[in-house]
Specification:
With 261 residues, this protein is an alpha/beta fold. The chain has a single domain, classed as P-loop containing nucleotide triphosphate hydrolases (Rossmann fold). 38% of the residues lie in helices and 27% in strands. The strands form three sheets. The chain has a six-stranded mixed sheet with strand order 6-9-10-3-11-12, with helices on both faces. The protein has nine helices and twelve strands.
Length: 261
């Protein structure tokens, strides 16, 4: 089964405003694909649309993954298919520990319609073993999971929980929405190291990295880079494209788009 994620002519509105205006893009299985672009270009809208956020209205196009148009699936069904979203601004859930949240997420992913939840839930001993192993590989202190989810966490800690969640859910297609947002350079290195560790353990996983700046791509090396401007993918290339954008900014891309019109 083809595990590439293929986006065809995707159009998306937020309320009455059109944000995505015909996105065409393929994220290959086993590859890291970066999308860069200026503020307001539609990058985060693409991420939330792929995961099924109800506030985004698809007005046209398809997104194919593992033989299904995932736009026809609910968010939980997309998760069960292997799609994962790391949020730009993870929310806090007071009263729910990181460990309990992770186990609930895994059980929700494993659940099957018509079956007793107990029959599909991950055994406690297995969960604890996997959690300890993933935390060790990501260099996260075990005391971390006893804290309430994201309550009082720094920006870097919130993003590390996202990476830990990704490690435990084992997605086949991970979408990372501006993971570098709000991180200082030390936190950025730690989070990037976690992503690289996870990718090295699961090289068949596809990863879509959404970012404004090339600095994240100094640490998470992409195979492909695409540029989004005004709701469309307007330029694609290899990792050298990120360096060119860092050097020149986005004005030359905008000029190129204007010259085509």
């Amino acid at each position: 089964m083809n595990s590439d994620l293929v986006i065809n002519d995707l159009h998306v509105n937020i309320e009455e405003k059109q944000i995505l205006k015909g996105v065409n893009l393929t994220i290959k299985a086993g590859a890291i694909h970066a999308i860069m672009g200026p503020n307001g270009s539609g990058k985060s809208t693409l991420a939330y649309t792929l995961m099924g956020h109800p506030g985004y209205t698809v007005t046209g196009g398809e997104v194919w993954y593992k033989g299904q148009n995932i736009l026809e699936l609910e968010a939980d069904e997309r998760s069960k298919l292997g799609v994962f979203l790391a949020f730009q601004y993870p929310v806090s859930i007071p009263g729910v520990t990181v460990a309990n949240f992770l186990r609930s997420a895994i059980n929700a992913q494993r659940s099957e319609e018509g079956k007793d939840p107990k029959s599909t839930s991950i055994p406690v001993a297995q969960f604890r073993k996997e959690l300890r192993e993933k935390m060790a590989s990501l260099e996260i202190d075990e005391s971390f999971v006893r804290r309430y989810l994201n309550e009082g966490f720094s920006g870097g800690e919130k993003k590390r929980v996202e990476i830990l969640q990704m490690a435990m859910l084992k997605p086949s297609m991970a979408v990372m929405d501006e993971t570098d947002s709000g991180l200082d350079i030390d936190a950025l290195k730690i989070v990037s190291q976690g992503v690289n560790t996870l990718y090295s353990q699961h090289p068949e996983m596809g990863v879509l990295v959404i970012t404004h700046y090339q600095r994240l791509l100094n640490h998470i090396q992409p195979h492909f880079v695409s540029v989004m401007v005004d709701g469309r993918i307007v330029h694609s290339g290899g990792p050298e494209l990120a360096l060119e954008l860092e050097d020149k900014g986005y004005d030359w891309i905008r000029a190129e788009v204007t010259s085509r019109q």
